[in-house]
Write a structure and sequence with these properties.
This protein has 278 residues and is an alpha+beta fold. It folds into two domains: 140 residues; 130 residues, no CATH class. Helices cover 23% and strands 24% of the residues. The chain contains six helices and 15 strands. A five-stranded antiparallel beta sheet has the order 4-6-7-14-9, with helices on one face. Strand 2, helix 4 and strand 3 form a beta-alpha-beta unit. The longest helix is centred in the first third of the chain and has 14 residues.
Length: 278
């Protein structure tokens, strides 16, 4: 929104003792373009930013583009919204349904303030796939406040571009791993402390009671659900987990088909250093 129009809105709001927040959505898909600085550099005019046009990018570029803006705004942080999550089979941009799903999750883990699937046929709207993503995000929200999420791909190794994405709660208590389409990565847990709990749709209790049994890393192998069940809507891929400890070579747990593509580690604070993997 242009500053002149913004001034009109602010003036009318002030007369009613209201505060309104405005922004401008630029059409440049490259978030590093100079045009976007018209909003990024003026927090006095624009109370939040909208980076929806990033949703024309795919894979690693989509993630990196968003993080560029997050870093750029760090000195004067504001909410980063993606009002239009593009991505649906047959749309005029040549996207797929999977594009829309991945963009939703990458933005969520990277710290977006809001995400919305764009209307058909540009996006998924509220079809079954979009609803499944929203339900899964709500389940994640039950484990940690999503406004605390911070991207943490530096904790991943043995990773290919767009293979997996990681985030934390910023306090070293909650860890999230998302596999867009299956894969295998190693996750650094050397800074974790407390009781380790694996959260999925089923519980697999494993206690490590030795006082020195501290995890150094976890290795995940995720098989995409569509390859196993034939259903792109399945939220239950096959997961194999190996947790590497200081006191034993490895502990392997085969989880079967009861865990979700978005994996969460929840480590409650204030508990003794006995490790449990569920």
């Amino acid at each position: 929104m242009e500053p002149i129009l913004g001034g009109i809105c602010w003036g009318k709001a002030a007369k009613q003792n209201k505060t309104v927040y405005l922004t401008e959505m630029w059409d440049d898909w490259n978030l590093t373009a100079e045009r976007h600085k018209r909003t990024f550099d003026h927090p006095d005019l624009y109370g939040f930013v909208d980076v929806s046009q990033n949703n024309h990018n795919k894979g690693q570029k989509h993630w990196d583009n968003f993080l560029h803006v997050r870093d750029y705004l760090a000195s004067q942080p504001r909410p980063m919204n993606t009002t239009k999550t593009y991505g649906a089979a047959g749309n005029k941009f040549g996207h797929t349904d999977q594009d829309g799903i991945e963009r939703f999750w990458r933005h969520l883990l990277a710290g977006a303030a809001s995400m919305r699937f764009h209307r058909p046929d540009s996006g998924l709207g509220l079809n079954n796939k979009a609803v499944a993503c929203i339900h899964a995000a709500r389940q994640l929200e039950s484990l940690l406040p999503l406004w605390s999420v911070e991207p943490a791909n530096e904790l991943l190794s043995d990773r290919q571009d767009n293979e997996a994405y990681a985030a934390t709660d910023g306090g070293g208590r909650t860890y999230i791993v998302y596999f867009p389409s299956g894969g295998e990565v190693r996750f650094d847990l050397s800074e974790a402390s407390g009781i380790l709990t694996f959260n999925g749709s089923t519980s697999i209790p494993v206690s490590l009671n030795h006082k020195d049994a501290c995890p150094v890393a976890a290795k995940f192998r995720c098989l995409h659900p569509a390859r196993k069940t034939g259903s792109p809507l399945s939220l239950h891929p096959i997961i194999e987990i190996e947790v590497f400890l200081r006191t034993c070579p490895r502990l392997q747990v085969r989880a079967g088909d009861g865990l979700k593509t978005s994996l969460v580690f929840y480590i409650p604070s204030g508990l003794n250093p006995t490790w449990a993997l569920e």
